[in-house]
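COMPLEX REQUEST
Ligand: 1-deoxynojirimycin
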Amino acid sequence: MVESHNARVRNDLTPWWKHGTIYQIYPRSYQDDNGDGIGDLAGIVKRLDYIAWLGIDAIWISPFYPSPLADGGYDVSNFVDVDPRLGDLATFDALVERAHGLGIRVVVDIIPNHSSDEHPWFIESRSSRESPKRDWYVWRDPRPGGSPPNNWICIWGGSTWTFDERTGQYYLHLYHEKQPDLNWRNRAVQQAMFDVFRFWLDRGVDGFRIDVAHAIMKDPELRDNPPSTGPRSHRDFGDFDRQLHVHDRGHPDLHRVYRELRPILDAHGAMAIGEIHEYDWTRWASYYGMDLDELHMPFNFGLLTAQWNARSVREIVDSIERALPKGAWPNWVLGNHDEPRIASRIGDAPARVAMMLLLTLRGTPTLYYGDELGMRDVPIPPERVQDPWALMNPDKPAFNRDPARTPMRWTAERHSGFCPGETEPWLPIGDDVAAINVQAQRDDTRSMLSLTRALLQVRRSNEALSLGDYAPIEGVPADCYAYERALPHSNAVVVLSFADEPRELTLSALRDMRVAASTHMDRDDLSKDGHIVLRAHEGCVFTP
Ligand code: NOJ
Ligand code: CA
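STATUS: Structure written out below.
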């Protein structure tokens, strides 16, 4: 199945994370190797050929560390090992070796903001006020009357403070009460966590996705957050949105931490992409660092906030491009394990246009596993819900992240080749499997999988598409969006229609250009005079 385009010689001067495409794998859901219904590292190893065939440059693996699973593995009880249900360190090493052999880089998730309450550090910290690790977490006395030390609210609802009877103090947790926040103002914590980075670097990883990168430093005085007038991100988070999160998130001291981390990464040629939920683009851009000396890329969740129409999408792209510091490299995502799937958010045909957008904008794309098949959210029966966020908010179905975390579909067989037919997978596979699986789509030249693969190939063979400048093109119908990607000696033009009906365009930029990929996968016509008719929800990439 592996073909040679992964081995193509590239411009060695450009770091891989600039020209490459990242593919996010939720390890419990990719491939079960040992037949217990849970995806594992050995399963990923088996599927690396597929990933190489698809044309991916790097995989980002969501947490696979030992964990009591109070938050899908984002509650880690040992930062430097593999959860026995998912494998062991030897399998991880084999994964890195095999991936590298196929030209695929490996990015691991790292969770510096909090540990599990079952991590030995927290067990020790909790044991007494005198514990040498007491200050590794954030402990405070109750306010007079016994209430929590401040007004901070968990994104999942309720106070961020839990009272610990034994020592009579509250501890801080921005997320689940089983995810106590580490105290990054303590140098020993910082050093211990930097050692975790070093541990994985020594095992050969090529980069990190840093969880909650915008919140590891809090206000040193832990002051109350002021009230807010409304939601400030892409979703309605209820009570959480009634505060301005100025003291629990986005503290300026974060920058110092990333400036100290950067040389550790650079010494290994590794990159960091940080989870930054910041929707004021100037503040978002600050995570690159004044001298581009902090995160290589703060995740850009702009497209998750878009109304899916040409104007809103273009506005977001243009604002990101404007906000970028000089020399900073952008990145784009359409979905991840925390969001409803793109095909469910906007529909199947628009999701194909979205895939073309993702893979042709200037910046590193991160593609969520299964989106290359057009996987949709899978309904989860109440008795099978796993996501703590959903369990804590039974009245808010939108809070359930399980529907976007269901097993990858490989075949149309029972359980889709994810796990043996007689084993129950950890989350349901879904009903719409017949057409949405790798086997069915691999041989269908017009499938979403064929489209994704074709786009990745065009992106690799046309340097302007991966590295060229971005310039929007004016003079297109209001429900279309066009842009040029250009280098001094090559270019490409992308035209996307968000309309339910055909649209005609005439653009001088299209003159003598040929369709290198259409979302409909059925044309390669030449536009002699710059004229093109796009069908409903059609996008085309043109190259000379
Ligand atoms: C962001 C992760 O993407 C999400 O899945 C997790 O629940 C929180 N961080 C807490 O770690
Ligand atoms: Ca397994």
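REMARKS: Confidence is low (pLDDT under 50) at residues 1-10. The pocket of calcium ion (ligand 2) is lined by residues 32-34, 36, 38, 40 (CB under 6 Å).
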